[in-house]
Design goal:
Number of strands: 10
Distance between the termini: 34 Å
Helix content: 40-55%
Number of helices: 24
Largest sheet: 5 strands, antiparallel
Strand content: 5-15%
Structural class: alpha+beta
Oligomer: single chain
Strand order of the largest sheet: 3-2-4-1-5
């Protein structure tokens, strides 16, 4: 082992530990890893920035724009809603939901599909008295299934495609992965509608838990003789309370004031609505002329006024809010909305809302202005999972152009009239020229954090290959599995890739494994295509944890799931995908 190999192993190991512990955003961790390798001279500046011109990475950026144009048309929501049916046979409804969702995610970005359909599926379940926990994990898994069918199904597929081209290989065709993806998806859907349905729990969703306002809301009624009448919130001593947070004032005449600032004045008959630790409200009983109602009967709908809405948002993996309290994040001033409650692990947090340190997957109940959704629907800090009453959609002409452009792009790439990258450039150019999208809307669709992970990870992959680390690992891998042959190597490649995906990120996992797979194939003097397909499918097939794939995280809180729910359903599904992928790659490819 050379000093360079040793250094690369240590740096990559530290990166994986940081990703597992989620000490900060994944894109920042991966970028810092690349920077360290550059500063230590392991890679040159040209090699460090090579990922930013990688064809796969640039294609992903273009596809974000194309998918965004199709998703804003509004036609997808109608399509899936009709597919769910009447719900008389829930297991059959799961099949009816998962098949079209898998088909859509083969061509569109998975994350917005799950964000868009989570409130739709949850409301559909509510109307039929079905627990949403029976449907939301299948919704997430369906998008993962679909992502393994086409070249453009996930950013991971395109990343491997770009790496193959950079290393002198042909790259995947549009439906080359479907040889494995379609059989695996069909078996996965069958599993989820039978065994998986029995394994999935029946739990209350975050929406149901938030409705029990007695657990986190209380009222302070200001009587006529109270000395605080006419005083500001600050002067009355209601701003920095121990364990409580004032979220709204309901006036005697029905006027509702939210968010409440320090300068709002108190009037007689005001109902002051607090959220937080109900047990600490006793300190307010020392204020003369007020009546404390510890068992508030206020309904969430009462908090709304003409300009205020209630919504739920799930904290994302790459959020800048993570590991900081709501107060430290200055959530109200930063986003223009007040957090009423935080749902984590099937229950409300027991701290004062402002003191809660946020974690990925936390579901926030937010009282905000009506423009909150339009302003923050594309935020990288959280996913808004509350349905929009009147969504902004394209007109029929724009909808037709968006869908026709997507179909044309797929056909051009499928029949190899244009490369995937050129077909995507043509599609984006068409959308701009027809004014279906504008430069202002493009910023909402492009997920720059994912692009940074991909570009930085490519540079790390170059370091792994350049220093001989990949060849070093491949040599030991072949030696260990010598008695098992190629079949054993395929199993180990799949297992290690899917393990990395569950504990770090799918793109980071595949970049680490690509040079190892290549070096292994070279060592064995065989065509590496089956190895590439194995690591590509394994990197996307993340079912066993809510943190392995962002769609799993989105449904975590809304479904009221526990971490172990994913293990019960996901591990058998992971094994099913391993069996199907390795079998097909070994015997057919």
């Amino acid at each position: 082992m050379t000093i360079d190999i040793f250094m690369v192993l240590i740096i990559v190991g530290c990166m994986m530990v940081c990703l597992m512990k989620e000490i900060t955003r994944p894109d920042f961790i991966v970028f810092c890893t690349l920077a360290v390798m550059l500063l230590l001279g392991i890679i040159t500046p040209a090699e460090a920035v090579k990922g930013f011109s990688n064809e796969g990475m640039l294609t992903v950026a273009l596809l974000f724009i194309i998918a965004g144009a199709v998703q804003q048309s509004g036609i997808l929501t109608k399509f899936v809603k009709s597919a769910l049916g009447h719900g008389k046979k829930p297991r059959f409804s799961i099949i009816r939901m998962m098949i079209p969702v898998s088909g859509l995610s083969g061509f569109l970005n998975n994350t917005p599909i799950v964000v868009m359909f989570t409130p739709l599926v949850r409301n559909w379940c509510k109307e039929r008295n079905i627990s949403p926990s029976k449907f939301l994990i299948p919704l997430s898994y369906a998008t993962i299934f679909g992502g393994t069918i086409t070249l453009i199904g996930t950013s991971t597929n395109l990343l491997v495609h770009g790496l193959m081209i950079d290393n002198g290989y042909t790259g995947f065709s549009m439906f080359q992965l479907a040889v494995v993806g379609i059989p695996a998806a069909l078996l996965g859907i069958l599993f989820m509608s039978t065994i998986g349905y029995r394994l999935l729990p029946e739990r209350k969703s975050s929406e149901d838990i938030f409705k029990n306002t007695r657990e986190y809301l209380s009222e302070l009624v200001v009587e006529n003789t109270s000395p605080i009448v006419g005083k500001t919130i600050m002067d009355a001593g209601l701003r920095q309370l121990n364990g409580l947070y004032l979220i709204e004032i309901i006036r005697k005449d029905g006027e509702k004031v939210a968010p409440v600032t320090s300068h709002h004045k108190i009037k007689e008959g005001d109902r002051l609505i607090f959220t937080g630790l109900i047990s600490t409200i006793v300190e307010l009983q020392n204020i003369k002329g007020v009546r404390v109602d510890t068992g508030s009967t206020i309904e969430l709908e009462e908090l709304k006024n003409g300009n205020q809405v209630l919504l739920e948002a799930v904290v994302s993996h790459q959020s800048t809010l993570i590991n900081k309290s709501i107060r430290q994040n200055k959530f109200r001033s930063r986003f223009g909305g007040g957090v009423i409650a935080v749902h984590r692990n099937k229950k409300h947090t027991t701290k004062k809302v402002g003191d809660v340190k946020l974690e990925p997957g936390d579901t926030l109940l937010i009282l905000a202005g009506r423009d909150f959704i339009s302003r923050w629907s594309s935020s990288k800090d959280f996913y808004i999972i509350t349905p929009v009453d009147s969504p902004e959609v394209m007109n029929r002409k724009q909808t037709f152009i968006a869908i026709l452009t997507l179909v044309t792009m797929v056909l051009l790439a499928t029949f190899e009239i244009l490369t995937m990258f050129k077909a995507a450039v043509f599609a984006v150019l068409t959308l701009f020229l027809t004014k279906t999208i504008t430069f202002d809307t493009v910023r909402k669709y492009v997920q720059f954090n994912i692009l940074l992970v991909i570009a930085s990870a490519i540079g790390i992959g170059i370091a792994i290959e350049k220093t001989g680390t990949a060849a070093f690992i491949a040599e030991h891998l072949v030696r260990i599995t010598q008695s098992l042959g190629i079949l054993g190597i395929l199993v180990i490649l799949y297992f290690v890739t899917t393990l990395f995906t569950e504990i770090v990120t799918n793109n980071a996992a595949v970049v680490i494994m690509f040079p190892i797979a290549t070096a292994t194939a070279v060592h064995l003097a065989i065509d590496p295509m089956s190895f590439f397909i194995v690591i590509t499918i394994a990197a996307s097939a993340s079912f066993a944890t809510p943190i392995g794939y962002q769609t799993n995280l989105i449904v975590y809180g809304p479904g009221g799931y526990r971490f172990t729910d994913y293990l019960k359903v996901g591990i058998p599904l992971n094994l099913l995908y391993l069996f199907v992928t390795v079998t097909i790659c070994f015997f057919i490819l």
